[in-house]
Amino acid sequence: MSAPATPPAATTASTTGRILPNRLQSPLARALRSWEALLLVVFVLVFAINSFASPYFLNAWNLSDATFNFTEKAMIAFAMAMLIIAGEIDLSVASIIALASTAMGLAMTAGAGVPVLVLVGLGTGLLCGVVNGVLVARMGLPSIVVTIGTMSLFRGISYIILGDQAFTGYPKGFGYFGQGYVWWVFSFELVLFAVLAVAFYLLLHKSTFGRAVYAIGNNATAAQFSGIRVARVRFLLFLLTGLMSGVAAVCLTSRLGSTRPSIATGMELEVVTMVVLGGISILGGSGTIPGVVLAALIMGLVTFGFGLLNVPGIVMSIFLGLLLISVIAVPRLLRRK
Amino acid sequence: MSILKSREAQLALAIAILTAGIALRFPAFVTPANLAGVFNDTSPLMILAIGQMIVILTKCIDLSVAANLALCGMVAALMNGAGVPLALIVPAVVALGAALGAVNGLLVWKVGIPSIVVTLGTMTIYRGTIFLMTAGKWVNAHQMTAEFKALPRASLLGLPVMSWVAIALILLFALVMTRTALGRAFFAVGGNPHAAVYTGIDVGRTQCAAFVLSGALAGLVGYLWVARYAVAYVDIAGGFELDVVAACVIGGISIAGGVGSVGGAVLGAIFLGVIKNALPVIGISPFWQMAISGIAILLAVAFNASQSRVKGRIILKPAEA
Amino acid sequence: MQPVLSLRGISKSFPGVKALSDVQLDLYPGEVTALIGENGAGKSTIVKVLTGVYQPDAGTITLDGQDLRFPTPDAASAAGVTAIHQETVLFDELTVAENIWLGHAPRGRFGLIDWTAMREGAKRLLDSIGARLDPDARLKDLGIASKHLVAIARALSVDARVVIMDEPTAALSHKEIHELYELVETLKAQGKAILFISHKFDEIFRIADRFTVFRDGQFVGTGKIAEVSEGKLVQMMVGRSVDQIFPARSHNVGEPVLTVAGYSHPTEFADIGFTLHRGEILGFYGLVGAGRSEVMQALFGITRPSKGACRIGGRVAVIRSTAEAVEAGIVYVPEDRGRQGAVKGLPIFQNVTLPSLGAVSRGGFLKMAEEFKLARDYTQRLDLRAAALDQDVGLLSGGNQQKVVIAKWLATKPRVIILDEPTKGIDIGSKAAVHEFMAELAAEGLSVIMVSSEIPEVLGMSDRVIVMREGRIVAEVSGAAMTPEALVRAAAGIEEAAA
Lengths: 337, 321, 499
Description:
The structure holds three protein chains of three kinds. By secondary structure, chain A is mainly alpha-helical. In chain A, a hairpin with a 2-residue loop joins β2 and β3. The N terminus of chain A is likely disordered. Chain B has a domain of 197 residues. Chain B is built from 14 helices and two strands. By secondary structure, chain C is of the alpha/beta class. In chain C, a hairpin with a 2-residue loop joins β21 and β22. Chain C is globular. Classes of the chains: A mainly alpha, B mainly alpha, C alpha/beta.
């Protein structure tokens, strides 16, 4: 249902009773020129190149295995995307994983069962989110510095507890979250990723909360002057990011079967890369969940493809670094022409 | 009074109290030799914090410093292995560091990409490049010439050359930041970019210059680091960029730009250095260090905010007493 | 007399907008030329061309008979053209001396900046304009008027021959404005050519020697102030003659809606009490900085009063956030539209529904069709000029952005609407429309508080006027007592001084 476009401003006819159309261009036309469309093209290209490059690529089980290298990051990336759209950032997510994993390790040594372990992991994540949220949203401190601080603090606590030791010997049932399959090749993590993608899509794009997030990211002062509870939204976003880091901690700990204080080191930067690659403006105010989903898939495929070709992981990170800069630079350079 | 109001004085006082507190129980910590050792140990952090401070002053951030350092350090080690004289290696890695910084700066200036995205990308690219050059192999002490390893440790008037380099750079940059047009432009660009344009300052070019300086310092530290620890590999100084940013935050440099000083950055680095070196002395596991520096960052940022909080307008006249 | 600076045939386009087309401007030594035009007439664009921020697409700039180009702001300042800007573009964290000298500081040995010479030079320049400021003071510790003085000292420091003053009196008090006029006389006596941009006719007639009028990016006319009337200037500005006529109002007010008692804040205001009735327009008059906006923002939940109570429709309302204010039925159209008004980057319809998200959603999920309907209903009522409802608000003109803000609030069906300087910086044509609309709202039973610093507007629109000074209510006038003299005396505290 797209109303026909009227030429802007130029109409000098009677102004009373002039009806504004809902949209200038149809949602489809807009989608075709979007960042997400570009990502989709990249995704198809990477998929095609991989299929040509390796005979092992087009195999359901191989592809399924490949998803593990992005699912945990993507879970955090969804929440991080909303946080960045709101004009904040959380660099402590990987450290939250370390602390949540350590807390689960402690609970495990105390003899906790699987449900308690999961609750401890999620609860620790939530608690870390509360700490960030209080410091940023309630006390009004800049999030980039606060989360650089809590990044040291959270992982630092893990180091205090574990030193150079590790927790191992998680109960058998606990392995399901990182190693189990729901049906055929669909792992628990992959299914969880899909469910969360839909949930975050609804939250960001269809809910009143998501609208407030966009408003705050574009102009927090004007949002406050429009009756939006800015501090509360920011606080909830940190909570959500902490919780998702807790979810990722459960999955990652379950997959690895052990906890070291160095777990997930540097993952915060990969998560931010995924979010920015997904078209979320680092300056806040714009971006979508489908973009993040595509970015996650692209990063997963590239890692997988390089892996099949026996290219070391660090080379793959060069590629991602170049990808990150070029996907942002190229459109800017073209627009200038 | 007004001197005590300055951020640098407060921080210096905090460091003095901290050191004195340690000295009460562990007098050995404050012997001149040990303090000189702490200073020397903190030199790389101080030098990089100065560069980072300049970048942060211009409303940017350089997350690639540690990767830049590692790449330049590796290049220095490889040049040494190829028989290049030291007198050439040092200027070469400084130039390389500056060039890597210029890549960041040009992407920020000419393409207009936010600095956090640029340096997030180049940080992985620079580190990855080390791997491409070496296939992941280490350059160990026995592969380095004695001369190459000796320079930073050579003693001059009782202090190692590394310390002298830090002192010289602190003085040089204190001069640059207060007495040159470029130095003041860094403050102007971060303080009010809009106004800077009207005073004839090119915001992008100034930001680019900040990255070049930060990169050049990272290049120099790259050599010092590799020579001092006598080893070079892909992951040296991994995550060090965060220590550098932390030193700046503790030193009172505002992440919003326009506020900071060389003294603040240096004292911020020394604060972290004292904690790091004091832990083993007072018998606390070094595993505590990370959490403590996290707390220090949080306290510093909360303190910064309370100092610079915008006071409400004062409209009412104070009550006549 | 030969002009110092002459612009001829200047044109400048931006994507989709022709900001200037073939305009001309002459500035004469020792004379003040007022540049007059409505918002969007191209005044700020010509300032940016003159200061080298924008490059004109066509046209010539002639300084002392020489054709020049200003490729950078540097070049303009080197040629002796300098501007004192609307938002006083200076550096809060730097000292007064450095703000004056930044970019052309005196150099000592080895080309290093000579701070001693800088301080002394600053002192000399400040003295020459009678400003007693400490060169070492940080700019952030100074008031707006003092910042202006610093900006002027800076203009003198480059030995400017052409000084551009862009609405320099917008944020100053009466006394400060007076001092600024004297300063302009000093600059004139020194032979500077001054370009003076202002919306205020009284000050144009007071200090300008010549005028130039722009309209819609085009040159309309120029001449000597002594040979033109106010009416003629207005006609040139708007292309038609407009009398400032305010809509007729019945002044029938209903029962009390909002009662404020003893509202106090530690530093901003004290003991504020008043009653607002149904269908009433209550004017708040005072000098800039008298605390009027601060009171309104406290009522709207931006800040919290330390004492006092507020009743709406007889019930006590506790307002701790803007959300609670909206729930209580109090809404606020801010003065600072750029920062606090519409959310640029969001489309029109999302701006309109932002405070009413609950009304266009079910269980927290938005109903797109209802959103569009609500937005259409209210934007249409305000006769919003836009291409479509999903257009970015940032692409609209200032007046239309203001309409979006008002539409957003009307959609919440408020009981009290507070308008803070609703016509500030708005052209005369739109002003009348805003006044008309306010009268309409009041007639429908909405209670309106209008904060305004323009006496004709306050007198023309209000049923009653409250005057504030230094954070307190000093007078309340209505009916025949509402005279310009009464307001000015109360606002300036003249009666007390005389007594």
